[in-house]
């Protein structure tokens, strides 16, 4: 009997889960990694900043996982459209939802539906060439851009808006985004934090990088910084990050044409404009028990682009338990959703941590399967999936197809860039099949 696992989502969480299963069961398990796109690697391809290419070297490890005997990539198969969770549970001994959190958390303020207001999933997906977002209309014809949120995604977006074409050309940014950014009129980027520098979740490297941009100066209002002595209470990593923010304060305005303005203690309350975003209205805040409380004092930040970098949600799947408040599947600590059904990565714990945080996640799901006594039960596994998809005339792609796509992307790269991503699934299929 075949012992089979279906992992939905070919991102870091999916690959680490597959790696853990291979480590535990060796060649006794067959694994299908199913993705709705013909391209694997999820957020490594479509989320990690294009100028942070070294982080993407981890795909070599995922490639090795995928090339191990008994493991397949089944691309171009969408859960809900082509196959249901119940059907997968009937076909495989265990099913793991490693589908990430691709939806933007809504800002929920008046005017957030105006043209010019986007979420970070859409904006990051646009510059990274995710097929869902490659066609996003990004208007950079105005001076100001407001980025809501004090996490690393906010810094990524600010850096991409602030860099020169020369700084971006040799990165993994897609050609359409490079062309739009090259013609950008944006000169003042504002990063809006509803709390203060000590509460920001930037990491040290990401904050520090802003001090080394060719044409942009980061600016922190000295009055927003707590007394230096208070930094002693921070953990060492966070203290170093705050040191960078301190170094941006009180620096005379130089001659770099772009500013990145940290707007701490500002809560977004509305987006205003005639038929499109023209300003973000923010309210000054102060902290009470660590929470941001509005003071009633309002400011207008002129901007034609508002990017909400405030977190993500997992897409609900009809018939599968979903915790609306948490924006993800409800699981126990090990990732169990229901008998035979598990989740790993952001779909289990929400959008937090680094790429590497997904590794222990994958291993804990496999440990749970072992504890649950999951084993070969006579289900048809991959052959059953192939038969079902073929009866529905679903075109699937495999890892070899992805390698063909990759070769075409590498061949089309600008000088110095690692690849030029294909952004159209139909074109991907033509090359993969
Ligand atoms: P994040 O670190 O959780 O930051 C989200 C930010 O949004 C927080 O500052 C939060 O403020 C703010 N926020 C949430 N709701 C808000 C609202 N309604 N109004 C105003 N502000 C609001 O999330 P992220 O930046 O999306 O990053 C996701 C994960 O990916 C993080 O773990 C991040 O470190 C990781 N990541 C890592 C890298 C890297 O290593 N280079 C790059 C990108 C992302 P409060 O704190 O006040 O809630």
How would you characterize this protein structure?
By secondary structure, the protein is of the alpha/beta class. It folds into two domains: 3-101 and 314-432, Rossmann fold (3-Layer(aba) Sandwich); 103-308, FAD/NAD(P)-binding domain, CATH 3.50.50.60. The protein is 31% helix and 20% strand. The protein has helices at residues 12-25, 42-46, 59-67, 85-91, 120-128, 152-162, 165-169, 175-182, 204-209, 236-247, 346-349, 358-371, 382-391, 399-411, 425-432, and strands spanning 3-8, 29-34, 71-74, 94-97, 103-104, 117-119, 144-148, 188-192, 216-220, 258-263, 266-272, 279-288, 291-302, 305-308, 312-313, 336-338, 341-343. The strands form four sheets. Strands 3-2-1-4-17-16 form a six-stranded mixed sheet, with helices on both faces. Helix 1 crosses helix 12 and helix 14 packs across helix 15. The chain is globular, with a radius of gyration of 23 Å. It starts with a strand and ends with a helix. Bound molecules: NADP nicotinamide-adenine-dinucleotide phosphate. NADP nicotinamide-adenine-dinucleotide phosphate binds next to helix 6.
């Amino acid at each position: 009997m075949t012992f089979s696992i279906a992992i939905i989502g070919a991102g870091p969480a999916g690959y680490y889960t597959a790696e853990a299963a291979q480590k535990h069961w060796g060649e006794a398990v067959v694994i299908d990694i199913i993705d709705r796109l013909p391209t694997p690697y999820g957020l490594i391809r479509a989320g990690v900043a294009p100028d942070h290419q070294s982080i993407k070297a981890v795909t070599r490890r995922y490639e090795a996982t995928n090339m191990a005997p008994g493991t397949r990539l089944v691309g171009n198969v969408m859960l809900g459209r082509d196959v249901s969770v119940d059907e997968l549970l009937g076909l495989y001994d265990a099913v793991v939802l490693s589908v990430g959190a691709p939806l933007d958390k809504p800002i929920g303020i008046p005017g957030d539906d105006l043209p010019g207001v986007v979420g970070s999933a859409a904006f990051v997906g646009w510059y990274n060439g995710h097929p869902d977002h490659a066609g996003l209309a990004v208007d950079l014809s105005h001076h100001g851009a407001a980025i809501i949120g004090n996490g690393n995604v906010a810094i990524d977006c600010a850096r991409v808006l602030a860099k020169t074409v020369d700084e971006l050309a040799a990165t993994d940014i897609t050609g359409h985004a490079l062309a739009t950014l090259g013609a950008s009129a944006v000169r003042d980027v504002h990063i809006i934090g509803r709390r203060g520098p000590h509460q920001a979740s930037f990491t040290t490297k990401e904050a520090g990088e802003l001090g080394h941009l060719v044409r942009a100066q980061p600016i922190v209002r000295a009055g927003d910084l707590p007394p230096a002595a208070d930094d002693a209470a921070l953990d060492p990593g966070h203290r170093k990050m705050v040191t960078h923010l301190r170094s941006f304060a009180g620096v005379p305005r130089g001659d770099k044409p772009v500013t990145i303005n940290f707007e701490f203690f500002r809560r977004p309350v509305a987006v205003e404009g005639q038929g499109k975003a023209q300003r973000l209205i923010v309210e000054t805040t102060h902290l009470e028990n660590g929470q941001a409380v509005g003071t009633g004092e309002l400011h207008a930040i002129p901007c034609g682009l508002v990017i909400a970098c405030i977190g993500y949600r997992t897409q609900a799947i009809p018939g599968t338990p979903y915790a609306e408040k948490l924006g993800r599947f409800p699981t126990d600590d090990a990732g169990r959703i229901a008998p035979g059904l598990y989740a790993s990565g952001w779909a289990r714990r929400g959008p937090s941590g680094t790429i590497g945080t997904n590794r222990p996640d994958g291993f804990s799901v496999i440990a749970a399967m072992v504890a649950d006594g999951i084993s070969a039960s006579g289900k048809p596994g991959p052959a059953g999936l192939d038969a079902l998809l073929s009866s529905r005339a679903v075109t699937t792609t495999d890892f070899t197809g992805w390698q063909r796509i990759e070769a075409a992307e590498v061949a089309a790269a600008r000088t110095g860039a690692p690849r030029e991503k294909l952004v159209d699934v139909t074109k991907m299929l033509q090359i993969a099949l």
